[in-house]
Amino acid sequence: MQPYEVILHAQVWGMLAAAKESDKKRLLRLFDEVKIAPFRTGDYRQSDDTGRINEVVLLDDWLVTFWSDHAVHKIHVVNLEKVED
């Protein structure tokens, strides 16, 4: 199987840069896991504006939204959100 590439959209880069170092490590580990298992499903799914199904993973107090483009072996991480109490 051809390796997948993880693409972080601009908003995700900003949130990742602002995250605590321990959170960054956990999030980067998740990105690596998704790259290895690109057919992984999230904890739930949601449609975007185009009707594309996005996988949403809850990782501790973070919501990570991504979709896999299997035709070109890329995973697009389109949203990263810190969940507040």
Walk me through the structure:
- This protein has two helices and five strands; from the N terminus they run E-H-H-E-E-E-E.
- The mean pLDDT is 95.
- It has 85 residues and is an alpha+beta fold.
- Strands 1-5-4-3-2 form a five-stranded mixed β-sheet.
- The protein is globular.
- The chain has a single domain, classed as RelE-like (YaeB-like fold, 2-Layer Sandwich), CATH 3.30.2310.
* Total discrete domains: 1
Strand order of the largest sheet: 1-5-4-3-2
Q: Element order, helices and strands?
A: EHHEEEE
Tell me the β content.
35-45%
Ends apart, CA distance between termini: 41 Å
- Principal-axes geometry comes out as globular
Q: What keyword list fits this structure?
A:
alpha+beta; 85 residues; 38% strand; 5 strands; 5-stranded mixed sheet; YaeB-like fold
SSE blueprint and pairings:
Elements: E1 5-8, H1 10-18, H2 21-36, E2 44-47, E3 53-59, E4 62-69, E5 74-82
Parallel strand pairs: 1-5
Antiparallel strand pairs: 2-3, 3-4, 4-5
Sum this structure up briefly.
This protein is α+β, with helices and mostly antiparallel strands. Helices cover 29% and strands 38% of the residues.
